[in-house]
Every structure is written in structure tokens, then in C-alpha cells.
Design a protein that fits this description.
single chain; alpha/beta; Dihydrodipicolinate Reductase, domain 2; 9 helices
Length: about 300
């Protein structure tokens, strides 16, 4: 019997993307609430409890409500909201984060899908903190640019309605209370709150994250090649996954660092650049905010929970 998969919130941006990615799969059965029962809370509870794995593509409060409706010990959950990303008892769904993370996800009853913004910085910073090249209290600042689909339905409708009049470059979260700060801090192994400076661009999907590093205050200043080697060694040791590391080069420009480069894929490409004379470096990640940053990661986690290898 094929595992039953229920996508709670299948008509939102992430839910639609997951449906598209699973459309040709014959190893699973996608179950949906009939249109005439879509607003019936009892129907939602029924389908949640009948599923082998429920994928929640909902706002935080609605995701918490869905979890509370599960009354059995068998339904497993992948939650794409922010509600449980640093919660006890939930596995963090970034499979490449550590060598044992795929096993943790595969065995988990509850998996919190990562946010799009923290994944790139976590992917680059965590190996450096683990290797002792950056202290856990390093003052991290990150910036980047994402397509407007990362802002949910309201932002999508706003950008599409404005057309050519939509802002090309829109900084936001200027109160420095971005909801992804706790997630980035926890999984990058930082003890100091990082500073996030996200930007929305006038394109639908794709993203770049950037972490500039002023290394001159460290007792031992790592070179750019030291940083690159630690990150490359981490991902080389995984034996699979969606994250790759570009070769270390000294250059002023790389054409592949384009926010839309990996759209509609689950790929993430990491780059390290350095100026050793100035004790400066930059960590850059390129991926799709709707792919590895959302629906692609959810499908990857689903496959791990179904027993597929990384």
C-alpha cells in the first residue's frame, strides 16, 4: 500500500509547488479534502489523521492548530511554517546540516522545514563554527536578495498588481526582528543574535544570501582558503545531498551568482571569497527560495522519511 500524503494548505504558494514536484510520483498517494468540505474543520482533522505524512503549508497559528488536531501516534508531520523550527522534539529539516541529520529526519515523527533566508547562512557558517575558525560569539551580519514569492500571497499579489511600478530593490525587516533570527542563531551554532538585512527584488523566485566577515579582530585569522576548505570538507563528507561548493577563486565577479540560477531545482551552491591582506571574506549561497528554501526541501525531507537515501 502506498503511503498517503496530505498537504494541508495545498493551494498556497509552497503547497502548489509541492504538488507540482510530486505530480508524477507513483510511489505515494496524494490525498486532498474535497472542494465542498474544504472549510469543514472536521474534514481537515479527518485527513490529517488518515495520512501517513502530513505536510503543513500554513501560517504559524494554523500549523499549530493542525498539529493539535492529530490524535493518533502514526501520522508524521513536515511543517513548512516558522512555528516549530527551534522547538524541542522537532527535527530540523536541513538534511545537509550535519552528517547525522539525514538519519535524524528519516527517523523523526515531526520535522520542521527550514526557512529560506537562514539556510544559506547556516550552510556556510555552521561548518566554520564547528571547525573553530569562527567563534560562536562572532558578530554575524547577513544580507541578500529574494524573489517576491518569499513574502507569501499578500506580497505576490502586491508585486503582480504593480507590475513595472513594483520596487526593484526593497529592504525590509528594518526593525531587526526578522522571524528567522532564532533559527539562524540556533543552527549556525551562534551565541550572539545575528543581524539580518533581507531585500526583496522584483522577480518571482530565486535568492542569494551573503555573509561578509571582518576577520581582523580574531586571535587567529583564517585565510579565505581555510574557510573554503572547512566548508568543502563538510559537504564532501556527506556523500550526497543538494548542496555543492564552488572552487575557491580570487576574482571580482562570477556570472553564476545569479539569484535565479537554480530556480525550479533543489540545488544550493556555496561560494567563499577572501582578501587575506585585508582579513576580509564573504560567504555566498545561491538557491531557489521556493526550491531548497521551501518546497524542494520539503520533498527532500519527505523522501528521507519514506526511507529514500540522501
Amino acid at each position: 500500500m502506498r503511503p498517503k500524503i496530505f498537504i494541508d494548505g495545498e493551494h498556497g504558494t509552497t503547497g502548489l509547488q509541492i504538488r507540482t514536484r510530486l505530480a508524477d510520483r507513483r510511489d505515494i498517494e496524494i490525498v486532498s479534502v474535497p472542494a465542498e468540505r474544504r472549510k469543514d474543520p472536521a474534514a481537515r482533522a479527518e485527513f490529517l489523521n488518515a495520512a501517513d505524512i502530513a505536510i503543513l503549508c500554513l501560517p504559524d497559528d494554523a500549523a499549530r492548530e493542525s498539529v493539535s488536531l492529530i490524535s493518533n501516534e502514526t501520522t508524521r508531520v513536515i511543517d513548512a511554517s516558522t512555528a516549530y523550527r527551534v522547538a524541542e522534539g522537532w527535527a530540523y529539516g536541513f538534511a545537509e546540516m550535519d552528517s547525522d541529520q539525514p538519519r535524524a529526519i528519516a527517523a523523526a515523527k515531526r520535522v520542521a522545514n527550514p526557512g529560506c533566508w537562514p539556510q544559506g547562512p547556516i550552510a556556510t557558517l555552521r561548518p566554520l563554527v564547528a571547525a573553530g575558525l569562527l567563534p560562536a560569539d562572532f558578530p554575524v551580519t547577513m544580507s541578500g536578495i529574494s524573489g517576491y514569492t518569499g513574502g507569501g500571497r499578500t506580497m505576490i499579489e502586491d508585486y503582480q498588481a504593480k507590475g513595472e511600478d513594483a520596487p526593484e530593490f526593497l529592504p525590509y525587516a528594518l526593525s531587526f526582528k526578522h522571524k528567522h533570527v532564532p533559527e539562524l542563531k540556533a543552527y549556525a551554532k551562534l551565541t550572539r543574535d545575528p543581524m539580518m538585512m533581507p531585500v526583496v527584488g522584483n522577480f518571482a523566485q530565486g535568492m542569494i544570501t551573503m555573509v561578509p566577515l571582518q576577520l581582523g579582530t580574531l586571535e587567529r585569522v583564517p585565510s579565505g582558503r581555510d574557510l573554503h576548505a572547512a566548508i568543502a570538507d563538510h559537504y564532501a563528507g556527506l556523500g550526497g545531498g543538494a548542496v555543492t561548493v564552488a572552487p575557491y577563486v580570487e576574482t571580482d565577479r562570477v556570472p553564476d551568482i545569479d539569484p535565479e540560477r537554480y530556480n525550479d531545482t533543489n540545488e544550493m551552491k556555496l561560494y567563499v571569497f577572501g582578501n587575506d591582506a585585508r582579513a576580509q571574506a564573504a560567504l555566498i549561497a545561491v538557491y531557489d527560495n521556493l526550491g531548497k528554501g521551501a518546497s524542494g526541501a520539503a520533498v527532500q525531507n519527505l523522501d528521507l522519511m519514506l526511507g529514500r537515501p540522501l
